[in-house]
Amino acid sequence: MPHGLAMLIVLVGVVLLFFGIGELIGGSLKQFIADSPKYEATLNSMAASLIQSLNDRGLSISYEEISNMIDPGRIMRFTAGAITEVGGIMGNVFLIFFIIFFLAS
User: Which of 21, 32, 69, 104 is 20 to 30 Å from 75 at the Cα level?
Assistant: First the structure.
């Protein structure tokens, strides 16, 4: 197989792989952002349940004390930021691949 054709096949394969992974991450991030209010409501409900359970067992803990320690909005922002960072890492890996590809050809 000629060297140029082999490099072209590898290039096309890697580009398709990166676009596929990018689409997967992008779709997941879009769905996560769309569902974030539902996740936040669920976390708030779980926190209220935990507080009620602790209060039933004799511990005097208010919702404000727990909500000051655990902020569901901050958890959601952290998760969205982590997913964004993964996208940035993928972009850097893609750039490194192209640099190596052009150095190898």
Answer: 21
Range of the domain at 33: 23-104
Q: Are 51 and 61 in contact (CB under 8 A)?
A: yes
To which residue do tokens 């803990």 refer? 61
Which pLDDT tens digits describe the chain residue by residue (105 residues)? Answer: 888 888 888 888 888 888 888 788 778 878 888 888 888 788 788 878 888 888 888 888 777 777 677 777 777 788 878 878 887 887 788 788 878 877 776
Domain assignment of residue 5, yes or no:
no
**Residue 87 near residue 71 (C-beta atoms within 8 A):** no
In a domain, 55, yes or no: yes
User: Comparing C-alpha atoms, which of 1, 9, 2 is closest to residue 101?
Assistant: 9
Indicate whether this model's pTM tops 0.70. Answer: no
